[in-house]
Structure to design on (260 residues):
């Protein structure tokens, strides 16, 4: 069995109603994200989304499967189950725990391409690389990626996360920093090669210093794909607003002798 792993940014501007009609500079990354998921979804019905919590936390967390972008200025309801997409008018009932941004993005993209349902793997943003490896390894076993039952059902994984936040003069982290540019190059190379070990070795302190929001999700995905044969395709890699946005696909096959 092969699995498709799709990397997208955790950016509200992917949603047209949040970006606004005049924000044409958001179209390339949005089109790339929707297209990448649509292409990966062909023939794959079983999907999970890996995202990072908004609040400080560690480990694997629970998350609502329904939410809204109202906190970002426009009430755009989304769900990880079929029923809503951008343009829906039904607002979900208020919940004690709001849906985090990474899962809102996953829900919106799911609705755009017609994936029936996405499971949710939410990981605390302070989770250590070692914990991410454990979570990813456990998830691979849960999904039977590379295991004896892996041939039956192809798996799709949507990985939501941003890169460094100081990549241009107008970047949200106070302008361009060379250290952020260097770290983003490491991230881009690891995703583009593809290089799970490179993602697994991203340092916590470096990522925190440069505002990298996707480290945890990427490291879980890296462990999920460990040991498999990988092919990568990068559809978008830029920082139009000073934040590193990457849209890419990994096609992962289990190690030789563990599936087909």
């Amino acid at each position: 069995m092969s699995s498709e792993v799709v990397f997208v940014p955790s950016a509200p501007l992917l949603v047209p109603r949040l970006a606004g009609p005049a924000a044409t500079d958001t179209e390339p990354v949005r089109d790339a994200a929707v297209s990448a998921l649509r292409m990966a979804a062909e023939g794959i019905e079983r999907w999970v989304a890996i995202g990072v919590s908004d609040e400080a936390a560690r480990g694997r967390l629970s998350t609502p499967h329904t939410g809204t972008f109202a906190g970002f200025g426009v009430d755009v309801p989304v769900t990880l189950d079929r029923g809503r997409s951008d343009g829906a008018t039904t607002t979900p009932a208020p919940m004690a725990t709001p849906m985090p941004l990474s899962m809102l993005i996953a829900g919106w993209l799911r609705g755009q391409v017609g994936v029936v349902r996405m499971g949710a793997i939410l990981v605390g943003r302070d989770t250590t690389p070692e914990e991410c490896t454990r979570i990813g390894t456990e998830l691979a076993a849960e999904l039977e990626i590379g295991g004896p039952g892996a041939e039956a059902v192809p798996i799709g994984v949507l990985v939501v996360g941003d890169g460094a936040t100081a990549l241009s003069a107008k970047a949200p982290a106070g302008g361009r920093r060379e250290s952020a540019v260097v770290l983003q190059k490491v991230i881009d190379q690891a995703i583009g090669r593809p290089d799970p070990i490179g993602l697994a070795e991203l340092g916590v302190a470096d990522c925190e210093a440069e505002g990298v929001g996707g480290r945890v999700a990427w490291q879980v995905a890296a462990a999920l794909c460990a040991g498999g044969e990988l092919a990568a395709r990068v559809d978008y890699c830029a920082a139009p607003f000073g934040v590193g946005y990457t849209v890419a696909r990994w096609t992962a096959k289990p190690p030789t002798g563990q599936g087909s």
